[in-house]
Structures are given as structure tokens and as C-alpha cells.
Amino acid sequence: MKIINVIPSGLGAPLGWVLVAALAGGVALGWASGASGPWQISHLGELLALASESAVVEELLFRGLLLWGCLAMARRWKCPRPTGLGIVASSLAFGFLHLVPEGPLVASGADLCVAAIQAVLKVVQATLFGMVMASLVVRSPWAARSMPGCWLALVAPAVAHALFDLLYFGPLLLTGGTLPATYLTGNIADIVPLGASTLLLFLAVFVTARADERPTC
Question: Which residues form a coiled coil (predicted)?
Fold first, then answer.
């Protein structure tokens, strides 16, 4: 029986850059938050729950339902590049929805200029991440299969998403830090993790675009 790779051909390097972006952002986030205490294994469960929940839910919604919906609509409207349009549209939605906070949109007393920069960086960061994850789906051999086999195309992005969150939030949570209720904190130091990870994710998208493997769906 032929074994189908979970990671589509040509996308190993982009995934590597995604994880480097997560690690760089995570180290910078810990520094920006002032989390310098000893590592606390007691917070590992919280970290694992956060990473696994966001990975499964967000990949099902954005790289599953929304991406495939965008692809179907682009093909119905006979767009010249339906795959690219579907990737960009679903990733932009993913990026903008990351601005929706659990509490207030902007932290109380925040510097609005800094918060505006954070908003732009967060949307760009999440959009770039979404583009790499969407590419994993459309280039997966499972994507061309009928239901329910096509859902296996979400395995690679779900695992990559979970690893990203583990690396990005791990240094903060495992040293006793807490996640802010919004990404728009107004703290100028918080621009560093967003900026560092965004720059590296640009590289991941660039490498993805140059991958030789053509989309399979």
C-alpha cells in the first residue's frame, strides 16, 4: 500500500520557517512581558490545552470550511486563479478575526499609535501564517479525495498550528506569565514579537510560493 506523506512535497522548508518564526516570537514575547522566572511544569497542561484547542477549531473553520468554500465559489465564478484566490481570501479572514478579543479591543490606557501598529502587524502575521497552512491543505494528496478522506488534508496544518502555538506562547506561560486579553496592548515592547515573527513568516510564504509542487485541488 502506498504511503501518502502528511507534509506535501516542497513544503518542508516553509514549515521549518514557520516554526522558527514561532520560536523567535515566543522568546521575544517572554522578554516583552517580563516573564523571567523558572519554568513551571504545572502550566504545561494550560499550554497544551490552548495549543490543541486553537489548532483543531481554527483549522477546521478556516482551512476546512472557509477555504474549501472560497475555492468552490472562485471556481463557480470562473476566476482565473481560484486556488490562489481561495488561499488569500480565507487567510485574510483568519488574519482580521485575530483582532477580535475576549474583552476590550484595545487595552485600557493603551497608546493608540502603538496599538494601531500592533493591529496591522497582527493581521499581517496571522494572514501570512494562514497562507502557509492553506497551502498545506490545497497541496495535500488528500485534498483531491472524496469525503471523508479529504478531511485528512487538515492533519498537517493542525499539527503545525499546535506546534506554532506551543513555541510562541510556551516561553511566556511556562515561566508564570499570562496572556493579555487583547493583542492591542499599547505596549511598545509587544511590537518586537509580532515584528520578528511577521518578518520570518514573510520568508515562509516566499519559500512556499517558490515550491515546485503544484496544487492538487
Answer: none
